[in-house]
Fold:
Amino acid sequence: MKIPDEEIDQIYQNHTVSYTPGEEVWQRIAHNIQTNEQSDQLRNTRKRALFMNHAKLNRYLHYAVRTAVLFLAVSGAVYWGHAGITALISGRSELAATATELKIAEKQYKKAKIQLVRYAEKLKRSGDAEGAQALLENIRSIDYAVEGLETMYRQDSGNNELRIAMGTVYYEQTELLLSTSALIGEVTR
Amino acid sequence: MSLPVEEGIEDLIHKAISGERNAFHTIYNRYASMVYTLAVRLTGSTEHADDAVQEVFLRVWNKLGTFGFKSKFSTWLYRLALNVVLRKKNKIISEETAYSDTDVELVLARAECSENTTAIDLERALLKLPALQRQVFVLFVMEGFSHSEIMEIIGISEAASKTSLSRARENLRKELSK
Structure:
């Protein structure tokens, strides 16, 4: 007798077999995490040492240079269109693979920006009006470039390359804002 | 597929984000089987599934800070796992790949069930399906996706998805009637 489709589906919906990976899979994951953390620590130590050595005079140079690089990349993407976007997302196809991931990246970016604006206010209150001004100008300039890209994406929201470009910018900028916040926090502590 | 218990997961995630590896290991122990079972069924190979699980959990470790607690953790993880597994399977198997009996038995040796021979027979029949038929059947019947969603996930037309499902059912019917 022919088993009806519904019955086959039901049999497999109640099917309980599962698989568990071998212990070596976790060991490989743990090893990878450890290796990545060690290189991150080394990078952070170098960053911190560089920043502390420059002291107050160059406190914002690190931020300003990275902002300028990102600003040029984003502006290039807006100005040059497809070629600029391809250059911006080169090697970053993992970022913002879906619209949901992009929304999450955007939220993280906005949260990080608020954090840095608060730092700028704190600097101003502590008497460093010049430093606060420099920070806010950098945030404004990157906002201006991001806005251009956001407008392009709104007009062509089905475009995968544009979505990845937006994700890349949000991701880079969030990293930049958070690392700058951390560095300023250390110096002003 | 029964989903892992979500109780206490929020606390574990916060600890893992702050760098506590023990907390991340607990998360892994709780969800690895869910990811691995999906990977085995979609790739049909324990070797590729091992790689997929490794890649998924490394991505989870790196991206956990972006999990906004707006959805269930299992849903977020499932989506991430599906993306990784499907990207991987595109590189490793063609649509018509069907595994030999030996390959199937090697995969089945890793299966967990309560000494239930019927369950193993069902799993064997599923693993013997050609790759595309197995993927469509797993996604449609066992994971609850619609044909239009499968069209987006695998990158085939809705008609091809329906045809593959129908062929999968027919092949399973033959296997189960033996």
